[in-house]
Amino acid sequence: MHVCTIIACNYVAFARVLAQSFREHHPDGTCWVLVIDELDGRIDPTAEPFEVVTPADLGIERFDQMAALYSVLELSTAVKPWLVRHLLNEHGVERITYLDPDIEVHDSLEEVDGLLRDHHLVLNPHLTSPMPRDGAKPSESDILI
Asked: What is the C-alpha to C-alpha distance for residues 97 and 84, in angstroms, rounded to an integer?
């Protein structure tokens, strides 16, 4: 099983938790992390619990222009197709699950991987029932944003 996510260097702690918790339930799996900004010594790819991918690996034309025009969140969203294509084509990955970097895995993701064997795309909603309107955080608006 393979998972991937996208971060800027300031989110590396989140990616480490994701990778370590994923590995607890999938010891033979791979966690790929696209780092959209310069590593600049903040991330040592050989010491991380995940495989590092950089924008240069993806061959995105005009990436520097995208990075200048988009916010970090917009850029992370925009490059997802290139990351998935790269993993499928260059690393021989047959199925890949994208997880937000602030996810901690608490159980096996085999059900999702099984669905991917039968379907080209599987979407997992953040919520499956309405949130209470009690003033607590996160609110429905926070989730939508």
From this structure: 9
pLDDT per position as a tens digit, 83-111: 999 999 999 899 999 999 999 999 999 99
Tell me: the pLDDT tens digits for 116-142?
999 998 988 878 888 889 999 988 888
Distance CA 15, CA 50 (A): 8
For strand 2-7 and strand 97-98, is the pairing parallel, antiparallel, or unpaired? parallel
pTM of the entire structure? 0.89
Instruction: Kindly give the residue spans of alpha helices, DSSP state H, lying in 1-145.
Output: 12-25, 55-58, 63-69, 72-78, 80-90, 110-118, 140-144
Tokens of 81: 């197709």
Name the residue among 68, 52, 71 with its Cα closest to residue 6. 52
